[in-house]
Design goal:
- The structure is a homodimer of 194-residue chains.
- The first copy, chain A, has 194 residues and is mostly helical.
- Chain A folds into 2 domains: 50 residues, Arc Repressor Mutant, subunit A; 134 residues, Tetracycline Repressor, domain 2 (Orthogonal Bundle), CATH 1.10.357.10.
- The first copy, chain A, contains 11 helices and no strands.
- The N and C termini of chain A lie far apart (58 Å).
- The model of chain A has no long low-confidence stretch (mean pLDDT 94).
- The interface between A and B is large, with 41 and 40 residues.
- Chain A binds a DNA duplex (30 and 30 nucleotides) through helix 3.
Chain lengths: 194, 194
Amino acid sequence: MAKLQKSIEKRNALIKATIELVNNNGFHATPMSKIAKMANVSPATIYLYFENKQDLVNQTYVEVKAEYTKYAFETYDENMPIEKGFKLIWKRIADFKLKECESAMFLAQCDNTPMIDEISRQEGIKHLQPLLNLWARGKNEGIIKPISDYLLYAYAINPLSFLMISQKRGAITLDANHIEEAYEAAWSSIKVCK
Amino acid sequence: MAKLQKSIEKRNALIKATIELVNNNGFHATPMSKIAKMANVSPATIYLYFENKQDLVNQTYVEVKAEYTKYAFETYDENMPIEKGFKLIWKRIADFKLKECESAMFLAQCDNTPMIDEISRQEGIKHLQPLLNLWARGKNEGIIKPISDYLLYAYAINPLSFLMISQKRGAITLDANHIEEAYEAAWSSIKVCK
DNA sequence: AATAAAAGAATGAACGTTCATTTTTTAATA
DNA sequence: TATTAAAAAATGAACGTTCATTCTTTTATT
């Protein structure tokens, strides 16, 4: 495999096709041949870029996860006050999940199945550090509840995945108003209540 | 497949095996042959109880979902005051997700992938009605935020799935204290703040 | 001309499902 | 009750298909 000099676009096309097909049919029903076809490439070519199917999916996961967190923290600055910083990150995440809904769908599917290697999963978690730091600071200042980061994540961030999936399935349509309500729910679940 | 008179146990064994194998390997990596082996049955026998693999998974989903909601509402009475009723249902759900963690895992996987037919999914949602009624009542009384049921579910109930998965993966261990904290987060996210 | 990239066709393994047969259960008869 | 016939349930092996992956050949690049 090594590194191919050329054609990063071909790699991108393969990753894009993987996301789309896995979203719509699930891992079990997306053959390499279909991925190749959607990316306008021969099945054999996939193996110039990826070791095998598992590797293709793992790499897709890590790459999408990185994009996601890059977007989430792009405008955040570690010196911001807690609530302002949280709101900023939260809104960016919400924004990503609604705009890049294909990517977000894919992540949700990976995060809830044994589709992905544990190693790639760990790799994906790393990028979340700035949010954990913010929470640590918030706990110190008595603004954020002194509870486990997993609990904070479960209530502050994870619900967005559920909402995104519901929207993708056509069960709801989220407008700016809903997002504001969701933010209020998220914030009130983790802030210290006076 | 008509109804078989005998051997409801064989059907149950098949469903149990399906849950366990799909949890650990995902749909795509659980062949019928393995399901048969784990249920101590010939592969051919599966087809006496289920039309095909998809049908087996669909039926497993609907059955587990029914168990889940049956458990959730078992001790609930429609005349309870809002907060008390909500707490009761919430605790039962938490209880189920931690005790019947295999079942809950399976549901989470189904709810986040295209593994399940849309029809079976709809079938599974029906059973949630008592909770929606409670919320309607709560909104009327000004106790619960006047927001979409999907938002309420996303913040009050869905986080438990995330926590359960994290626990199953060994990332956390939830004790009674965590559960209490989680309940507080859930309630504060949906109650009207005075 | 030499090398790297891509292609299509080929391969072997694995899978879901069915088939032909056997085993077990039920019902009928004496 | 004992024996036998019929029906139901269960089985292991086999089938046809699909899939991931590899092999060989062609095309593009330097």
